[in-house]
Each structure stands twice: as C-alpha cells, then as structure tokens.
Amino acid sequence: MSRPLSATTSYERLAAAGVRAQLARIEELVTSTRAAVDAIASGTVDQSTLGALAANVIPRWHFSMLNDRERNDAYATALERQVVPGSHVLDIGSGSGLLALAAARAGAGRVTTCEANPLLAEVARQIIDTQGLTDRITVLATHSSAIEIGREIATPADMVISEIVDCGLVGEGILPSIRHARRELLAPDGTILPQGAKLYGQLMESSAVQRLNHVEVACGFDVSLMNALATHGHFPTRLATWPHCALSAPVELLSFDFTRDVPEQQNRSVSFEPTTSGTAHAVVAWFELDLGAGVVLRTTPDNTATHWMQAFLPFPAPVEVAAGRSIEVELRCVSTRLSATPTRVCTEAPSTTQEATR
Amino acid sequence: MSRPLSATTSYERLAAAGVRAQLARIEELVTSTRAAVDAIASGTVDQSTLGALAANVIPRWHFSMLNDRERNDAYATALERQVVPGSHVLDIGSGSGLLALAAARAGAGRVTTCEANPLLAEVARQIIDTQGLTDRITVLATHSSAIEIGREIATPADMVISEIVDCGLVGEGILPSIRHARRELLAPDGTILPQGAKLYGQLMESSAVQRLNHVEVACGFDVSLMNALATHGHFPTRLATWPHCALSAPVELLSFDFTRDVPEQQNRSVSFEPTTSGTAHAVVAWFELDLGAGVVLRTTPDNTATHWMQAFLPFPAPVEVAAGRSIEVELRCVSTRLSATPTRVCTEAPSTTQEATR
Question: Which of A67, A174, A311, B213 is deepest in the core (most CB within 10 A)?
C-alpha cells in the first residue's frame, strides 16, 4: 500500500532502502567483530583493536562527562551526605564505575552497579579492580530491568543511584529505569538519588540550530525529502555556540518526583508569553536534577562548565510569534523522547497596561 | 596470551567485552530491522519508521552539509565552469543527489552517481525523480570501488566529481576512492573535481578539546583505563567554540594532487616554530579543496560559515613547547585517518636575530 509523498516519492521504498542500509551496517559490525575475535585468538589485541571496537559502541561523550567536575562533585557530595554507612547501594548505568566508587568511598558496605553495555561493564570492572574494591563493588553487565531480587542481587537495595541523563533528561531511559528500580529493586524505605528533576525551557529563534536537522532547498533544488531522515524529538545543541534569540522567559515544562511512580508518558500544554517578536523554531530545554541534601545540578544555557548541552525540541514548522501574545505548546514526553508542537498562537492583541491617571 | 596493563587490567578481556558489545548492537539493529520489515509488510510505514531507521544509519551532519551555501555554491560554480556540455559525469557519494543534479544543470549529458548507503541512494533517486531528471541521472546504490566499466557504466566517465570529505579531508575515504576512479573509471583525458587539496595545521593548546577524548582522574579516582576506548586519529571540533591558544603559525601539512596517483599512506615530518610558549595538545588541521577554475573551499578555524569543523589530531601526550624552539611532528595519513606524534622538541636556544649595526 504505497502512499506517495508526491507523484514520485514513496515512504515504502525509503523504508525498504533503510532496511538494506541497516543490513549493510550489520555486515560491517560482523566484519569488525570477526577481526576482533581473530585478534583475541591470535593474541594480537592492542590499542587499535580496542579503538576499532569502541568506535562502534562507545559514544565519545563519555570523556567530556567524566571530565565534568561540576557533575562529578555534585554526585560525590550528594553521596557523602546521604549514603548510610554499611548500606547496600544499587547504581544504574556504571559507565566507568565512577559513581559506584564514590558510593563505596561514601561508606556503602556493598555496591551493585549495572551496565547494559558489555564493554563499559568490563572497563568498570577493571577500574574497580585496580582500586582494590572488587570485594565491595559488584559489576553486572546487564540492564537494570533484567535484575531480579534473589538472582542478581540477594536483597533489595537501600539506595538506588543513577546518572543516566541526557541533555533532555529522559533520553537515556531514566524514567522507565527508575520506575522499575523503585518497584522491584529498592527497599520500602529506601532512598533514590536523584530524588527529582525539573525540565525548563524557553521559546527560541535559531535558524542556525534548526538547519542542523532540517533542509529545504540547496543550489536551487528541492531536497526536502531528506527531512524524512531527520531526528524526531529532541537533539543536543550547545546553544551558546550558535546564533539564537530567546523569545520568552524560561518556564517550567515538566516536573518529575522520582520518589513516586513516574509516568513514562506525559503530555502537557505549556503557555509561553513571548517577550520578543520573532520566528520561533523550537523550545530549548534544560534540566535541574535534585540530588538531595541540597545538591542540585543545572544545565541552563549560560552554564558553560557542564558537559551537558541543551535539548532542542524543533517545532514541526516555525511559527511567527508577537511580543505579548501568548502561544500554547503541546509538550510530549514519551519514554525517551521530548517533542514540542505549537497548538495555538493567540492572535488577540494583548491588553494594554492602563496608565495611572491622577 | 594476556598482557596486563597493570596487575588487574587486561586488553584481552576488554576486547572480548567489545565483541559482546558489538553483538548486542547487532541484536538491536536486527530488532529495528524486523520492526521496519513488519511496517512495510503491514503497510504502516510512516515518519517514525523512517526516523528510527535513519537514526541508526544516517549521521545528522547531512543536514548542516546540505545547508552549507559556501560548499554548495563552490561546487555548483566549479561544475558550471568545467562540465563539458553533453559529457558523462561520475559523482562519487550521492548523498541527497545534489552534486549530480548540479552537474546535470551544468550541462552533463549523462550523470552516474553512486552511493554506498542504500537509504541515501533511495533518497537521491526519489529527489532526482521529483526533479524529472531520472532519464539523465542514474543512481547506483553501491560503493564506487564496486563499479566496473561495461557493467554498471558502459564507458569511462569524462569527469569524476566527489565531495566525500570530512573535517580532516581523508576521513570519508576520498584518497582510495579517487585513486580507484582515476585508474578504472575515468577516461584518459578526463577531469577530476576536486583536482587537488592541501591540509594545513597549527600547534594548538586546548585542554578543553583534549578532554573530549581523554580522561585521567575523576573524583580522585584513576579512570584512565577509559582511554582504551578513545578515538584514534583525528576527530572533529569546532575550534572557535572552545578555549584554545594557537602556539604556532599555520603550516602546510600535506598536499594532494588528485590528477596523479595519490598514495593512500603518507608520513611526513613537519616542523613547527612555536610563536608562544605553552602546552601543545595537538595539531589542529583544516583543508583547502581546489575545485578547479579558480574555485577553492577553505575550512580555516575563522571560517564560521562552513559546516566543516576542524580536525583535532591529539598528541599521544601533551608536550611543553617554548617560543622560538622548533618542534618536529610526525604526521601520518593512513587511508582515512590522520595522526600527529611529536618526535623531537628542540631544546637549543634559538639563534638570536642579529640587529643591524651601523
């Protein structure tokens, strides 16, 4: 059942080509895997073997994340203040094992840390081993949702900690992971760190950032079919490094209380009051992560110390907004994706402020 | 044969874990492929089907590239000036099909464009179809190295054009592709566009950029084993958006004449004369692409209009340099990767310039 985009375009043929592209990618990965297995078998594993594997399965942001002192210090401080000595801490998303190490240093008697990426899990294991903490920290090469009490861990954890947080907070799956951990892996009176989070955002004009994920015409040719390959939902941008103009003050978009059941899907109509007239391309969002005990991480656009970028939630099409005329935006958070769609641009003239008269 | 990094680390176990990580990635791709096939079979292909496929196989930079007017105009102008009316043009790396369209508009009688990514090839096909140019432009969903005269194309091309150029010029394989095309697919008196390229670079201090691919200590813990997962060779950086300090003037690193056989591997010792004392973390490189007929594309760090970033070639370890004391750097270009290794830091005091005396 072909539903042409125009007389000559077809989503079905694109999807079939996408399947072929994924099969080609699988073949590349099989070839790379075979080369690595050969290197292991012949005892010739070296830096380039690992580099080739890592290039396929490890995003480079792990380095800027590990070098983010603001992030590291915030988590370390929050752990120092809240880990109960001798308690059992479950860390979701080991990465290098850093938070597990910090939890152990903060006094945890036992730390279980899980990592869905097998290569990262092994790095964490070896780093923890180098620190001589293998007896107190257990690395599980698994997604937290696959952990069961009585199987991977003997008893529920006293504390669940996690930093699987992308620029848009939800992109690495913190909502379903914390939801599952709260229900299945945490002791009834246990602690969750972070305990909550808020997403903030403002109306943004930035054709420069919009063009990172959208195209219309190039050299006079309509190449807009490329937009069928665009990213849906939010994508990261270092807002300060691109021309942009905020068209509204920041407003709270969504609020999450991790100590309760967090719904994985949230829709909310958010009202923005433009302070400047212009072309709104997106809502730009950032988060506040409440680590408890007074420790809060913020990724506001003017925070250039953090490794987190801001999240760009492109509108389906740009909308013209006028200062003082409110605009309603449907904000959706579905599992790991944020999106924003203007639903109503108020065309009423704003009520003029009455001047005081004597 | 385990060769431990330290008492407790092992490259072999990391490689085995990397193999498991790639197998997990393959499983994800198989799951995604199955979902797409199901959507095709049930006639439910939509934007989200394509978005999910594209997220796995299409880098987002295609959008900034297509929106790069400097690039587009340079190629369009070079084609207008050099395409012989009625000739056969072979375009390597279709992408959206833009250069093939521009070649046809410039007067080519026949254009063959090849694209190794099947999804992009189909997008190009449909865009070209929408422009009504299917009779003059043929899209081959194949790598150029798989093309044979008498099979995919009837006769050698009069002109070979390509823009498979990353920030470091060579990263998308332009050297082997042009080498093959010159030998196998181009008529003896044919034209190559670009006809040549030069790589320039300067000694750079930037711990900010270095930390995007390197880590030592976090929260007081040695997590340097993560560097086993670092990118080898060059990686892209928008230099202007990070704190940095140039420690030398730009020098020519490598020169490529595409009208002759280009060696795929080049080693060259490059001498830098530091103009400022400091810690050199890398050579930062950019290119000049000679499109012929007086058209040159430059991606110097001060060019903020181009979508190309600069290429960061991290040193194995930072080196201290002193103003006026030359430093030798071994520059290597192996197929698609650039790397830079300091070989000698001159510790001789520079000869003082003789003042003219009366």
Answer: A311
